[in-house]
Every structure is written in C-alpha cells, then in structure tokens.
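Quick one - inputs below.
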Amino acid sequence: MAGKRSGTQSKRPQRKSASLQSGQEPRSEPLLSLERIVATAIELLDAEGIDGLKMRRLADRLGSGAMSLYWHVGNKEEVFDLALDSVLEYRGLPEIVASQDWRGQVVHMLEDWRAVMLRHPWSASLLPRRALGPNILSRLELMSKTLSRAGVADADLNVAIWSLWNYVIGATTTRASFDLSDEDRAAGQQRLTRLSERYPTIERSRLLLDSDWDGVFRKGLDFLLDGLAPR
Amino acid sequence: MAGKRSGTQSKRPQRKSASLQSGQEPRSEPLLSLERIVATAIELLDAEGIDGLKMRRLADRLGSGAMSLYWHVGNKEEVFDLALDSVLEYRGLPEIVASQDWRGQVVHMLEDWRAVMLRHPWSASLLPRRALGPNILSRLELMSKTLSRAGVADADLNVAIWSLWNYVIGATTTRASFDLSDEDRAAGQQRLTRLSERYPTIERSRLLLDSDWDGVFRKGLDFLLDGLAPR
DNA sequence: AATTGCATCGTACAGTGTACGATGTCAACT
DNA sequence: AGTTGACATCGTACACTGTACGATGCAATT
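Output:
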C-alpha cells in the first residue's frame, strides 16, 4: 500500500477545537487562526490558481513564518480541504426554501452551486479528489430533503441525487477547464481548426468554441429533471 | 502573469514525428520511445496513483536515466496529457456502431467510457484539468455523429452532448473519489456516523454507504436520455 | 576520417513540504 | 512573586522534486 494520507485525527499538537469552557477572548488579535488561514488561502487560490498555493507564500500573506501554519493545520492537503469546503458553504435563501416550488428550489440550489464553483475555478478541479466536508454534506442533505418532500420515492432518491450531483460536478469541472488563459485558448483553437477535418461534426456545431454555457447548463438540467420527475 | 505553461510546440529538440522518408528500422530496440514511456507511465499511475508518478521513478522502470525522458517529452505535464489521452482511446465495436439502435449505441459508448476511467481512477481526476487530446475529441465526434444521425436537431445537439458528457464526467470522478483506501474509507464512515444526526436524510437513504454505483449510473443515464429524447 | 543528427545520461540547482527543536507569551496555580 | 505548563510562533535543516545544461556515445552520411 502506498497510502500515506493521514486520518481525520492526527497526533500533532493541532490546537483544541475552540475553547473548552473558559469562555474568554484570546486576548486581542490572534495574528494567526484557522479562519484567517483558510480565508487567505482562498484569496491566494483565486489569484494564483491551484499551483500557486505554497505554504511559504501563504505564510507571507499572513505575515507569519511558514512553519507557524502547521500549528493550526496538519499539512497542506488539509488547507485544500478546508478551502474547498469553506467556499461551498450554502447561504440558503429562506424565501426560496419555504416555497412549495420544489423544482424551483432544486434549480436554484444547483445554479448557486455552479456559480460558486465558477467563481473559484480551482474548486472545481479540487472537488473530485478531496473528501466530503461538512458544507458539501449539508448541500447534499438539503437536496435530499427537498426531493424527498417533493414526493420522490425513497427507492429513487439516491439515483436522483447522484444524477443531479454528477451533472453539476461535470458541468462545472468542464466549464472550469475551458477557462484557460488566452494563450492556451488561442493554442487550443489553432490546434482544433488544424484538425477540423478529422472532427467534422464537432467543427460544424462549434461545440468547443461558442457554446452558451449558461444556457446549456440550464437546458440540460431541465432535461434531466424532466426525466427524473415528468411534469 | 504567472503562466509558465508551454504551448503545443516547444523549441526543444523534441524528436521528429516518425522518420521522414528514410523508411528503415531504427536498427533494433529503441530502448526508449514515446509509446513505451506512455505505457509505463500508465502502469505507474495505476499502481501508485497520481502522486506516485515521478520522473525518476518512471525512468527507473524504463531502465534509463531520468533526463533521457526529456528527449521524448517536453515536461511532466505532457506525460499526464499523453497517458490520459492514451487510456481514453475508443476501441469501438463495429457491430454496435452499425446497428440502428442509437440509444443503445449511446449507452454503450458512455458505459465504455465510464469503465475505462474506473479502471484507471487517476484519469478521472486528471480529465477536468487537462486539455482535450485526439482520442477524447474522437469520442466526442463519434457521439455527435450518433446523436445527429438519431435525429437530434442541430440546435439541441450541443446541449445533448454536453449534458451526457457532464453526466459521465461527474459520475466517474465522484465514483473514483470514493475508491479510497480501506483506511480512509473507515475514517470517513466513522466521521459520517458521528455526524449522522446532522444529516438525517442522507443517513436514512445510506447515500454514501451502499449505493449501487453501476445501477445508479445506468438509471440516471436512462432518465437523462428520456429527457433528451422522449421515447 | 570527419561530420552530423539522434539519443542517453550525470551533475547541479532552485524550489517544495515539513520534521525538529528553540523560543516567546500568558494564564493559573503554589 | 515565582513557577509551571499549555499555547503559539519561528529558524534551520533535510529529503525530494522537476528540469537546465552540457558531456558523451553512436549510426549514417559525406
């Protein structure tokens, strides 16, 4: 086995989860905290992409030494996990959740999801290979509840959820991978037109060039929902 | 700009594409060749995962020095690109392609796609962040052609293709991320049951535990196809 | 024999994540 | 007041990574 991933609990000092019961402030500004680390990591990821996140650079932005981070965090992978889950927190709109239009709710939840991941393109390519954090699970839970209340039978529930999940994940990761730099984009287009005679159908429909991503997402989602629960 | 990605053509020596017209054997066994490098890289990826592919280890397996690889390959990223595209080559079954059952064809192509990516789990997490190679484009082209022949209007073609693509990508990446080591699996399950009171619906449907992945994939795909082209 | 292009390799370097221990800080207890 | 000990920060060091650069061998051609 080559597995070297550490479990959920490490034997590191690792910092206790919040104060036990001595409910007093940590005096003034902690200088370093999990929240600040994660927030700054997200900034850095947004600005520099997935390969731009280095522990030293993160520490620089925080005005601390590199090794100081390891008091709050077990390793770099944990930073990725926390950043990903943090970004995916669902700030649900109560008025929509309270409505009876379950289809509208589902569409809203999924479009919100997609919007978040497109705002932070690194999250799309990270999601497939990281564990499920609490915010991700919350989104799944909320979706389950909505579908269940909408009358989807328990037997079909898992199929419905996974289908929608798959669709969103696929759509965002694909979309994110097309959000490359202009340089890459130009190179890709050049390569494609050079090979256009080998892919005539794709070329004709201009599949890769001018797809209306938002519209395509919405229409495909409608098709999927039609299949899941014909109206 | 932090972009350091190289374009399609590098100014490296890089090896000419096949022999020009002096059609003679390169004497005996080339010891090193693009094909052998890619094949060995796939072996290594299968065995050690995405982080297990190091240039030195790859060279060891090939019985060569590390730097020798760079004659055939521009950089490590190119190895990923080649391995990914190589694995995704479609060995279509003519009898199925020739049939008139377009829905069967589509299902077959997508299940084959999924099977390939589950056989090489690293490919699932790689696909979202790499460029589209010729084999991937071929698969898209074949799908386009099939759907087009099936009577899907040009206006709906892109929606249909992207929806199916999204579904497959999402399903395989999700599935692959659940194919962790037993250790991780145990830790995840433990964490989930510990938090089960916060996710009652998920817990009840056992969404994360005993989903029948193959069945779910097939059923969801049927739903999607129903929506795309009601029978 | 000399040249030329192909292919391989050894060495070296600039980064990377992080192990380890030293050091500072502050609240609580004696 | 003095001591302790948990919390938090940091400097240094190391193993390991991708790969730039130049030396070296080798076959075919001149």
